[in-house]
């Protein structure tokens, strides 16, 4: 049994359509606990820094524009194997390839407006959680 924390971001396409609760229900129904959560309007600099790993990718500029186009909800999700489990709950990056019942299959509009972000490894989860949250904001 490995209890992990992972970072989730509910993206602007989802907050615009008032889907925060519907997405949170998916996490909770499938055994993840939301142990920290805050709604933010990211600045360009903050979004650029968060997605720095994608800086050389052709979609980087549009991704940053999209992530600052409206509010996001940053979250820490906790549970057994939470990093992998969250990626299963989210579904494939491209909603066209996402499995039935996943967040991206049900809610995503496109590969860019794909409703949620989730950390892709435990190491990145630690770094991404530290980017958004201080220790006293995380209540397990
Ligand atoms: P996310 O998990 O937030 O990590 C990087 C994001 O880049 C990804 O989800 C997608 O929303 C976005 N993105 C936009 N275009 C592409 C693309 N062609 N390939 C992969 N990711 C893309």
Structure description:
The chain is an alpha+beta fold and 140 residues long. The protein has seven helices and four strands, in the order βααβααβααβα. The chain has helices at 12-16, 20-29, 44-50, 60-67, 82-90, 103-107, 122-132; strands at 3-10, 33-40, 72-80, 116-118. Strands 2-3-1-4 form a four-stranded antiparallel β-sheet. The longest helix is centred in the last third of the chain and has 11 residues, at 122-132. The two termini are 17 Å apart. The relative contact order is 0.26. The mean pLDDT is 98. Residues 54, 59, 63, 93, 111-112, 114, 117 line the site of adenosine-3',5'-cyclic-monophosphate (CMP).
| Order of strands across the main sheet | 2-3-1-4
**Unreliable stretches:** none
State the total count of DSSP E strands: 4
Distance between the amino and carboxyl termini: 17 Å
Seen as an oligomer or otherwise, the chain set is: single chain
Number of helices: 7
Strand content: 15-25%
Structural class, please? alpha+beta
| Bound small molecules, deduplicated | adenosine-3',5'-cyclic-monophosphate
Biggest beta sheet summary = 4 strands, antiparallel
- How confident overall, as mean pLDDT? 98
Q: From the alpha-carbon coordinates, what is the Rg to the nearest angstrom? A: 14 Å
Form type: globular
Range of helix content: 25-40%
Question: What's the order of the H and E elements?
Answer: EHHEHHEHHEH
